């Protein structure tokens, strides 16, 4: 609430008594509603005031030299990654875009048994894309799977079980190793997948396969996808020589809720292939020609690189590096080094919220820790997922760059200058607001009533029928998020700050009922940041009203690490000099 | 130092490490001294680490010197003229196997549970109960006299029931913990009776050789021991408590039902082999019990839809096979089977929450769906029999309801009636209503 207990000492016993009488006079529900409103008000004030100050500060700063652009998912977990990347490499500009990169497909990687849908939820993909081994060296190690399956099934039967159990003493070694040194055990048992693979991305013929899917995308479809996504990225001019397009996902062990940490924009899948496919499309000369005809000129010197960010161990994988033109190799290497440094800093920032990690660890130790963590069978909190999410910023990176938001913000790129008629904004908000609100409310409800809206503690969870979890021996299927995923979440409704005029926002709300209902029924909070004047207005009781900042100061620190070092709890915003705000 | 002296020293170290840890953690807990998770975990890890080293040393000794054993008298509990009640422990091959398993697996479970239960309200309770359970297992493993085994046996039962009921704010865990406890108690009566009979007839409750029992007494004692072992081993018809015990956190399920607790039953019989060896009839009954249990568990286990219950029934199946092996006299095979099964099942249970992950990986390796299972039975049996069998299995042979409502229900009602009478009687004597006479 921002009011310490000592404030009560200052007002005197008379007024405390009066206050308590007021509090006690309230009905239970009303009292809670007021508490919650006050709680949200403080958070809102802190955030909007910080944005007002920070926007003002960055307005006077000339844009840094831009050699690389790196797109990440709008996911709140990428907020810190982007901030650290820009801190270690001021010549990088980051971009926030839905992690499906406008592609909806069934994807089958080499290590997949069957295709998985990667694309926005609610849409059935019509295309199938397969990963293929370039040199044809990949062969499925089928026998390994069959042996493993038979041992596992056999161990649960009568006669074969006895045979397996008699040899069971030999599993003592692997068991101890897996439990005591998870990272090492994982490295030893890692499957070697071929490095040289390619996506069968382009459609050769229009035949539908047995499941009614088209094999790959036609060039025309690619052009539409690339155009739509570049619009969402607010990247229609000023292309840097290298543009990275990173999808994300999360790997963890002993976690029935593993998929809940994957990319929401990919329908709960791992979005690496989307970034990779998008980069391939955007590099295609035929696509570029068609785009040029539509007024989007991607210079010949620009190259797109797809990648994948594992948010559990902060690993970044880049795809198809063998195709990168030679003159960009130096820049590529420089960027890879920046990624390495940024992911260690990101791991450090994540570790501060893990109670089991001392606050004194170095970035390298933090990285080692998270790499161990996602392989650890005993770890019920491989990552905190969207925990603490509370903000959604839609607008140019120039005013949010260098603002420390403590991994709490969905960041969508949007440039009002590129969108004179508001069409892009309309499509963008129709996608981003329901997704952000959905995630935010899922956490909201799961933390407010963990036993009923959430699925309780995950410790006794028992997977049943490969479809869900029960509590222990027998219970209803548990829905919602487990306590270990939401325990540090602060239940506040999503605060959206959009760089657009109030009129335009009201227009979007009336055009898209899915957005309008969320706003008018107060499931999300909405503020408008005027693109021209930088003034803010907050939507309350059915109308926008000017936002009057309560505070006009904002801490100014050299780097993110300086701000969060040595702390565990949530931190208020701050301006980061290294991030480009000075 | 003689071999026996060495064994004795090592054995006592291993024997008393868990109980020391439990006391070291339990007393501060009881009097309300705060301890960090780190300290608690370190204490448990150190205790099990030392115990495991001692156990491994014992293993080396007993494996390199076949037949080596060392009997240590801890104390004379009761000494009257012409009679002495000794607390004796023995360190030999069977003891070495179970002690190593206990120290090793409890140590691993301890290190697993520290991050797993991090910040859980019951963290401390778990880490007091875990070494307490291990202390009970150690007492069972190396108890030479039945009294000492009985003491350990009770500690194992109590700590197991408390860990099943770990999430004591929900109803189901407490109910199922109580159920397991009730089954344990019913079977424990037999163990206590066996101890009393041994004292009465032989003047000593040693399980080792050298007891001279007449045929009838021997048979009664052996029968009682078999009955006593059935509860812990979840043998038919007592199987029902085991799947219900999957209420605690994953690591406690792994250790109690998969790995150690379920093997305490067979182990008791291995320990009492000198008595059992002379009773072919009882051994025959044991083999039959084993066969029925194995068939029951494997059949019921096949229709379970959730991972923990199917693993639970798989554990019962193998425990039953171990009972058969003992009945047939292959005690050393049974020991090996026990050790392998305990380790394997611990692993499988600890990994149970990875089922979906592992499934995707498996499908990826095979490149499609999982190979079908059970096709042989589908070919052999007509559809009507298959359906009937499925129904029979999913209802767990109907014994569960029978046991719960018949046997335990009767017991429960009797206890309640006695309690009511007691309160009424006290009320009558003290002249006021004690609150129980409803």
Greatest chain-chain contact: A-B, 65 and 76 residues
Oligomer: heterodimer
Number of helices of chain A: 20
The counted number of beta strands of chain B is 2
Description:
The complex is a heterodimer of chains A (582) and B (438). With 582 residues, chain A is of the alpha/beta class. Helices cover 40% and strands 16% of the residues of chain A. In chain A, a hairpin with a 3-residue loop joins strand 14 (461-464) and strand 15. In chain A, helix 7 (172-180) crosses helix 8 (182-189), helix 9 crosses helix 11 (285-293) and helix 15 (423-448) packs across helix 17 (502-511). The longest helix of chain A has 32 residues, at 28-59. Chain A starts with 5 loop residues before the first helix and ends with a helix. With 438 residues, chain B is mainly alpha-helical. Helices cover 74% and strands 5% of the residues of chain B. Chain B has 18 helices and two strands. In chain B, strands 1-2 form a two-stranded antiparallel sheet. In chain B, helix 3 packs antiparallel against helix 9 (250-259), helix 5 runs antiparallel to helix 6 and helix 10 packs antiparallel against helix 14 (331-350). Chain B is globular, with a radius of gyration of 23 Å. In chain B, 50% of the residues are buried. The mean pLDDT of chain B is 88. Classes of the chains: A alpha/beta (582), B mainly alpha (438). The interface between A and B is large, with 65 and 76 residues.
């Amino acid at each position: 609430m921002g009011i310490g207990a000592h404030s009560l000492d200052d007002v005197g016993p008379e007024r405390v008594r009066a206050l308590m009488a007021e509090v006690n006079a309230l009905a239970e529900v009303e009292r809670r509603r007021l508490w919650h409103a006050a709680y949200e008000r403080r958070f809102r004030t802190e955030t909007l005031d910080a944005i007002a100050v920070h926007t003002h500060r960055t307005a006077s700063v000339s844009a840094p030299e831009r050699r690389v652009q790196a797109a990440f998912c709008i996911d709140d977990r990428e907020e810190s990654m982007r901030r650290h990347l820009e801190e270690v490499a001021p010549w990088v500009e980051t971009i926030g875009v839905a992690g499906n990169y406008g592609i909806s497909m069934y994807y089958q990687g080499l290590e997949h048994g069957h295709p998985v849908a990667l694309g926005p939820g609610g849409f059935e993909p019509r295309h199938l894309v397969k990963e293929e081994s370039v040199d044809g060296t990949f062969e499925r190690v089928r026998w390994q799977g069959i042996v493993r399956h038979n041992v596992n099934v056999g161990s649960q039967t009568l006669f074969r079980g006895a045979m397996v159990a008699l040899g069971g003493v030999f599993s003592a070694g692997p068991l101890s190793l897996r439990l005591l040194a998870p990272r090492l055990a994982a490295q030893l048992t890692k499957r070697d997948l071929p490095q040289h693979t390619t996506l069968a991305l382009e459609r050769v013929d229009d035949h539908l396969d047995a499941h009614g899917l088209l094999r790959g995308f036609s060039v025309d479809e690619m052009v539409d996808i690339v155009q739509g996504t570049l619009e969402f990225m607010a990247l229609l001019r000023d292309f840097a020589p290298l543009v990275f397009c990173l999808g994300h996902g999360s790997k963890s062990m002993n976690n029935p809720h593993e998929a809940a940490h994957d990319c929401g924009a990919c329908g709960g899948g791992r979005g690496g292939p989307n970034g990779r496919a998008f980069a391939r499309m955007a590099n295609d000369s035929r696509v570029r020609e068609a785009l040029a005809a539509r007024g989007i000129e991607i210079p010949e010197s620009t190259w797109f690189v797809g990648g994948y960010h594992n948010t559990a161990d902060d690993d970044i994988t880049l795809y198809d590096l063998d195709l990168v033109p030679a003159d960009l190799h130096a820049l590529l290497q420089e960027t890879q080094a920046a990624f390495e440094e940024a992911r260690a800093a990101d791991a450090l920032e994540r570790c501060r919220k893990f109670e089991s990690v001392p606050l004194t660890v170095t970035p390298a130790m933090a990285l080692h820790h998270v790499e161990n963590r996602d392989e650890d069978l005993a770890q019920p909190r491989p990552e905190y997922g969207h925990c603490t999410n509370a903000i959604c910023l839609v607008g140019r990176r120039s005013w949010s760059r260098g603002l420390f938001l403590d991994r709490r913000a969905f960041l969508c790129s949007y440039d009002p200058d590129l969108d004179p008629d508001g069409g892009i904004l309309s499509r963008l908000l129709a996608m981003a607001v329901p997704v952000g609100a959905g995630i935010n409310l899922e956490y909201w409800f799961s933390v407010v009533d963990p036993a009923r809206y959430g699925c309780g503690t995950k410790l006794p969870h028992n997977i049943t029928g490969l479809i869900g979890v029960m509590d222990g021996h027998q219970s209803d299927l548990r829905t919602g998020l487990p306590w270990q995923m939401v325990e540090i979440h602060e239940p506040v409704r999503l605060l959206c700050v959009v760089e657009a005029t109030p009129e335009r926002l009201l227009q979007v709300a009336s055009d898209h009922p899915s957005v309008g209902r969320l706003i008018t029924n107060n499931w999300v909070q909405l503020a408008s940041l005027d693109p021209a004047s930088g003034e803010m207005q907050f939507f309350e009781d059915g109308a926008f009203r000017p936002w009057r900042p309560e505070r006009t100061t904002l801490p100014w620190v050299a780097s993110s690490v300086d701000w969060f070092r040595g702390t565990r709890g949530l931190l208020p915003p701050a301006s980061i000099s290294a991030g480009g705000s000075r | 130092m003689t071999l026996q002296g060495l064994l004795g020293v090592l054995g006592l170290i291993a024997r008393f490490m868990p109980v020391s840890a439990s006391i070291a953690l339990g007393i501060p807990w009881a009097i309300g001294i705060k301890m960090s998770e780190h300290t608690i975990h370190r204490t448990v890890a150190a205790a099990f680490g030392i115990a495991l080293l001692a156990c491994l040393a014992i293993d080396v000794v007993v494996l390199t010197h076949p037949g080596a054993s060392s009997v240590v008298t801890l104390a004379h509990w009761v000494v009257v003229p012409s009679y002495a009640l000794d607390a004796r422990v023995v360190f030999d091959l069977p003891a070495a196997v179970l002690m190593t398993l206990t120290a090793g697996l409890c140590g691993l479970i301890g290190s697993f549970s520290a991050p797993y239960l991090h910040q859980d309200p019951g963290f401390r309770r778990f880490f007091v109960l875990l070494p307490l359970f291990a202390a009970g297992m150690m007492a069972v493993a190396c108890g030479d006299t039945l009294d000492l085994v009985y003491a350990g046996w009770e500690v194992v039962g109590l700590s197991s029931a408390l860990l099943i009921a770990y999430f004591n704010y929900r109803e189901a865990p407490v109910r199922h913990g109580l159920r397991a406890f009730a089954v344990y108690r019913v079977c424990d009566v037999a163990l206590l009776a066996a101890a009393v009979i041994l004292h009465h007839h032989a003047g000593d409750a040693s399980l080792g050789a050298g007891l001279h029992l007449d045929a009838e007494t021997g048979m009664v004692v052996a029968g009682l021991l078999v009955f006593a072992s059935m509860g812990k081993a979840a043998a038919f018809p007592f199987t029902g408590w085991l799947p219900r015990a999957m209420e605690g956190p994953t690591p406690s399920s792994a250790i109690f039902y998969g790995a150690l607790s379920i093997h305490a039953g067979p182990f008791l019989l291995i320990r009492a082999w000198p008595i059992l060896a002379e009773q072919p009839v009882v051994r025959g009954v044991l083999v039959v019990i084993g066969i029925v249990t194995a068939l029951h568990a494997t059949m019921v286990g096949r229709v379970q839809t959730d991972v923990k219950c199917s693993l639970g029934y798989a554990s019962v199946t193998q425990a039953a096979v171990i009972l058969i092996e003992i009945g047939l006299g292959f005690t050393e095979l049974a020991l090996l089977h026990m050790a392998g099964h305990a380790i394997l099942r611990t692993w499988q249970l600890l990994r149970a929450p990875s089922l979906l992950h592992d499934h995707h990986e498996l499908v990826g390796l095979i490149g499609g769906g999982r190979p079908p299972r059970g096709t042989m039975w589908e070919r052999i049996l007509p559809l009507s029999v298959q359906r009937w069998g499925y129904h029979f299995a999913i209802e767990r042979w109907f014994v569960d309801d029978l046991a719960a409502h018949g046997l335990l229900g009767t017991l429960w009602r009797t206890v309640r009636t006695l309690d009511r009478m007691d309160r009424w009687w006290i009320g009558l004597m003290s002249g006021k209503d004690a609150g129980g006479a409803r």
